Amino acid sequence: MNTPSTLDDVRDIVRRKYGELALLATQQRKPCCGTGSGDDRITRDLYAPDQTGDVPESALLASLGCGNPTALAELKPGDTVLDLGSGGGIDVLLSAKRVGPTGFAYGLDMTDEMLALAESNRQKAGAENVKFLRGHIEEIPLPDASVDVIISNCVINLSGDKDRVLREAFRVLKPGGRFAVSDVVTEGDLPEAVRKDIESYVGCVAGALDKEDYLARLSAAGFVDASIEVTRRYTFSDLGESCCSSQAMAALTPEERERLDGRVQSGFIRATKPA
Ligand SMILES: C[S@@+](CC[C@H](N)C(=O)[O-])C[C@H]1O[C@@H](n2cnc3c(N)ncnc32)[C@H](O)[C@@H]1O
Fold first, then answer.
1. Is 63 in the pocket of ligand 1 (CB under 6 A)?
2. 153 ligand 1 Cβ < 6 A
3. Closest-lying ligand 1 atom to the alpha carbon of residue 109
4. pLDDT tens per residue across span 201-250
5. Does 2 map to a domain?
6. Residues 120-136, mean pLDDT to the nearest whole number
7. CATH code of the domain in which 223 resides
8. What is the pTM assigned to this prediction?
9. What total number of domains does the chain contain?
10. Within a domain: 134
């Protein structure tokens, strides 16, 4: 099935997929970004044991990220943090601990099942400086210049309008505020069979931006000092079911499979709103 063309269609398909994955996590079955299997090279082993000791097991089970933005974002006590596409809430709960009682952590997600799971995890963690918001990352329901740090984990690749997400992130950040996001990125073209595959899209691969393109779009949105640090590189076999549907996989030539090696990566993307 080909990728949908309108923003609403993309949202519907992504919401359905992540609603199902939230329910799997609620049943204590570890889902993974797009695959539903428990041994995914993209999502596994992202958090160190000293971090995870403090969050409910159910938040860890629901983790569908591709990096660990809270470990890299240098959050400070008193910061206001916003997590775009907060899922089951793990990065919001970790951020809330880092910013402490004088800070605040918002999570934003469009999928009701994820929001319910995140709120249940918030209650289990006893976190008071946390709020989960229902909405779209393309229309962030917060005022201008109200956030110190934007984090996100494997979500912007899923948006049907990434420029709008970056403009919204810029709008809600305070002057001097930081964009500190983990996401899947690419280096070089992906085969057309993968780029057009909806399973690859919801699996966080087909919608990933090329690194150069990501940096150019951040700059167009107004950000400065943008950089991308590669945290993981995937071979074709690492990607497994996240790569694409069985139909798209069958359509790949041996050369295309080989060329996929290393082109899909997890990156940590940093940028700043000028002071
Ligand atoms: C791959 S999961 C990542 C969840 C979380 N960040 C984590 O690391 O576990 C993607 C999440 O983003 C949400 N999402 C995707 N597109 C969105 C959009 N346009 N607006 C709001 N939420 C979105 C989904 O509902 C899902 O919870």
1. yes
2. yes
3. 22
4. 999 999 999 999 999 999 999 999 999 999 999 998 888 888 889 999 99
5. no
6. 97
7. 3.40.50.150
8. 0.94
9. 1
10. yes
